[in-house]
Automatic annotation (TrEMBL):
One of its GO terms (cellular component) is extracellular region. It comes from Thermobaculum terrenum (strain ATCC BAA-798 / CCMEE 7001 / YNP1). Pfam families: Polysacc_deac_1. It is found in: Secreted. The lineage of its organism: Bacteria, Bacillati, Chloroflexota, Chloroflexia, Candidatus Thermobaculales. One of its GO terms (biological process) is carbohydrate metabolic process. PROSITE patterns: NODB. The keyword Signal applies. Keywords: Signal. This is Polysaccharide deacetylase. One of its GO terms (molecular function) is hydrolase activity, acting on carbon-nitrogen (but not peptide) bonds. Signal peptide: none annotated. Residues 142-313 form the NodB homology domain.
């Protein structure tokens, strides 16, 4: 009886001192966040570490934007808060004359670039968009992210068209070799294009998700190493070949030093929580310029005015 009374007294004392509050508060927070995570198991492994975003923002991959790279750390504004953004993220592969799902003829590409220019769109880089998502830096009023996969030779012609218009793109290339050779890729990098990783050998059959851990590590980590050796770039972003990823691939990608990754479909709404599986939009070669315009418009929101999330029309 005495022991019990003593126990009650101690408990009351603890509550008065506020310790009980803290214990109760932390357990409520823990159960609350667990409940929030439950419906989306992949999110648990993704997390939203601001530190990583800060690293990504301070040390942008590729060679540009030079203005961001040169800016001293002390002059950068403090982190605000993660925010979603909706922007056109266009995915291209080849640029041969025969229009197809993965081939866009150069005259068609030219029309698309002219459409983007005349409608006020400006090309941005992955470090810019990721920094923006994590509350740092600014984006032009109408940002567009142009991506090209596979390091195909025909991309040279597309790059020429982009340069003529003062536009840039992100190239996802393989560490194990591409149609574009290293000298060509170095020149492309020199021209201000961003070069990121598309793994070592572009595994599709089987895809990344079916590889052994050792092989997966080779694909993810070695491609970064080779791109650094050959091109002097620190590839911080990854495009999954065939868009194949799962929680294990994401975990391994983070371990290998990536701060973000892109899938192959899904539109233009990017959120900090899915930064290892941000969507893109395939631009088919048989798209009319009118349909292209509709596609781009459907993925456009006003970034500065939607801090809580992009507007999806
Ligand atoms: Zn590919």
């Amino acid at each position: 009886m005495v022991v019990r009374r003593l126990y009650v007294l101690v408990l009351v004392a603890l509550l008065v001192m506020g310790i009980g509050d803290r214990v109760a508060g932390s357990s409520a927070a823990a159960s609350g966040s667990a409940a929030a995570r439950r419906p989306r198991p992949l999110m648990r492994s993704l997390g939203t570490s601001l530190q990583e975003a800060e690293v990504a923002a301070r040390y942008p991959a590729g060679v540009f934007p030079r203005s961001v790279a040169r800016e001293p750390a002390s002059s950068q504004p403090p982190l605000v808060r993660p925010r979603a953004i909706t922007l056109p993220v266009l995915m291209y592969h080849g640029f041969t004359s025969l229009a197809g799902e993965y081939e866009v003829p150069i005259p068609v590409f030219r029309e698309q670039l002219d459409w983007l220019k005349s409608h006020g769109y400006r090309t941005v880089t992955l470090p810019q968009v990721y920094a923006y998502m994590f509350g740092r830096g600014r984006l032009p009023r109408k940002p567009v992210l142009i991506t090209m996969d596979d390091g195909r030779l025909s991309q040279l012609a597309a790059i020429r068209e982009l340069r003529k218009r003062g536009m840039r793109a992100v190239l996802f290339v393989m560490g194990g070799g591409n149609q574009l050779d290293w000298a060509q890729l170095r020149k492309i990098k020199y021209w201000g294009f961003e070069i990121e990783s598309h793994t070592m050998t572009h595994p599709l059959h089987p895809p990344l998700t079916k590889l052994s851990s050792a092989r997966l590590w080779y694909e993810l980590y070695n491609s970064r190493r080779v791109l650094r050796q050959r091109l002097g770039v620190s590839a911080r972003y990854l495009a999954y070949p065939g868009g194949a990823y799962d929680a294990r691939v994401v975990r391994m990608a983070r371990k290998a030093g990536y701060v973000g990754a892109l899938g192959s479909w899904g539109g233009g709404r990017w959120t900090p929580a899915q930064r290892f599986s941000e969507p893109r939009m395939l631009v088919r070669g048989d798209l009319s310029v009118r349909a292209f315009g509709q596609l781009v418009r459907s993925m456009t929101s006003k970034p500065a005015e939607s801090p809580g999330g992009g507007i999806n029309p």
